[in-house]
Design goal:
Elements (H helix, E strand, L loop, with lengths): L3 H19 L6 H8 L3 H7 L3 H23 L5 H13 L2 H7 L2 H8 L5 H24 L5 H22 L2 H17 L5 H7 L1
Helix pairs in contact: 1-2, 1-4, 4-5, 4-8, 5-8, 5-10, 6-9, 6-10, 7-8, 8-9, 9-10
Length: 197
């Protein structure tokens, strides 16, 4: 028999899965309780509202993102860290094609009605952008902010289209194209900067 604290974790896990698959608005507390195999009345013991459980889901996603990015940086080589992130996403191409990006999808779906949730979800995407920017800075690139934005924008666009088309193969191929782009990047030396100016 699971411990009582397991129920909270099961509810968060069920909410995370359902919100990723069908979105925040179409997910009800009853759906979450059913998915978690927890009586609906028990849900209110842990979470007063659907927004409260969504906050817990966002916190969990941010923690997972932080762990994944930390894992990508194991060898301290920024180019390799970016490549590791692409590999990690590519390994989930089927899930991404079926349900989209768990971060990007939630950022798109939430609106001003839930400004606290929106800001919290947006902070996950900003965290990814900051991490990406830092990798380009560590690579010695001239415009790390712009490259960080482009990197995340390309990945998010690929996941969005892969999801719309439900095409994991195309998603994987396009992520490979991003990896090829990263592989070709190198720092611009000062002589090249002067020649371009």
């Amino acid at each position: 028999m699971p411990r009582i604290s397991d129920k909270r974790e099961r509810l968060i896990s069920a909410a995370d899965s359902l919100i990723h698959r069908q979105g925040f608005y179409r997910t009800t507390l009853a759906h979450i309780a059913e998915e978690a195999k927890v009586p609906l009345g028990n849900v209110y013991y842990y979470f007063k509202t659907k927004e409260d459980i969504c906050k817990a889901v966002i916190a969990e996603r941010k923690q997972e993102l932080s762990s994944m990015l930390k894992n990508c940086c194991r060898r301290r080589e920024p180019k390799e860290a970016l490549m590791n992130l692409i590999k990690a996403m590519s390994s989930h191409s089927r899930e991404l094609a079926e349900s989209g990006c768990p971060l990007g999808g939630l950022c798109q779906e939430l609106d001003e009605e839930f400004s606290e949730l929106t800001n919290s979800a947006d902070s996950c995407m900003k965290f990814l952008m900051e991490w990406s920017t830092e990798q380009f800075r560590l690579m010695g690139m001239n415009q790390p902010v712009e490259l960080g934005f482009e990197f995340v924008a390309r990945i998010q666009g690929i996941i969005l289209l892969g999801n719309v088309l439900n095409d994991p193969k195309q998603l994987k191929q396009q992520l490979k194209a991003v990896a090829d782009w990263i592989a070709e990047l190198g720092p611009v030396c000062q002589d090249e900067e002067r020649a371009a100016a």
